[in-house]
Design goal:
By secondary structure, the protein is mainly α. It has a domain of about 100 residues. The chain contains six helices and no strands. About 25% of the residues are buried.
């Protein structure tokens, strides 16, 4: 949670101030053109900050996958629900790796690479949402049975 707080309180707002829009990881729906416009808007500063953001984001998927997966396992041992946050982390890593590749090849703008990242983002958020709903549902169910 501390990691998320630093992420949301420091890195994301800094990127938004420089580029005029939130980082692409936090935007549910966008096009490759939107991503490239965001990348160009902040110039070298946004590319440097976003590189730092991606380095920090290397650890975050592991943290939430372990935390949320363990929580689901504890609520319902033997269930396969624990896999939801693991798949969310996989989508997050696909997103991060494609964004890192886009930073590396800049000023080239390979649309197909951006498209992969921009599909991974809503998949990640959908799986995280399903994970939270599963936790809430299992918690509610266990409380009403007791």
């Amino acid at each position: 949670m501390i990691f998320l707080a630093v992420f949301m309180a420091v890195l994301a707002p800094a990127l938004e101030r420089v580029a005029g829009a939130p980082p692409p990881d936090m935007v549910l729906v966008q096009t490759p053109a939107d991503f490239f416009a965001w990348l160009r808007a902040g110039g070298e500063t946004v590319r440097r900050l976003y590189g730092l953001f991606l380095v920090a984001d290397t650890f975050y998927p592991v943290v939430y996958a372990l935390f949320l997966g363990a929580w689901l396992w504890r609520l319902e041992p033997g269930s396969r629900l624990w896999q939801l946050p693991v798949w969310a982390a996989v989508a997050d890593y696909v997103e991060n790796l494609t964004h890192a590749l886009l930073l590396y090849v800049y000023p080239a703008e390979p649309v197909w690479v951006a498209a992969v990242a921009l599909v991974a983002t809503p998949v990640k958020w959908a799986l995280i949402t399903l994970t939270v709903l599963a936790i809430l549902g299992r918690t509610w169910s266990s409380r009403t049975r007791a």
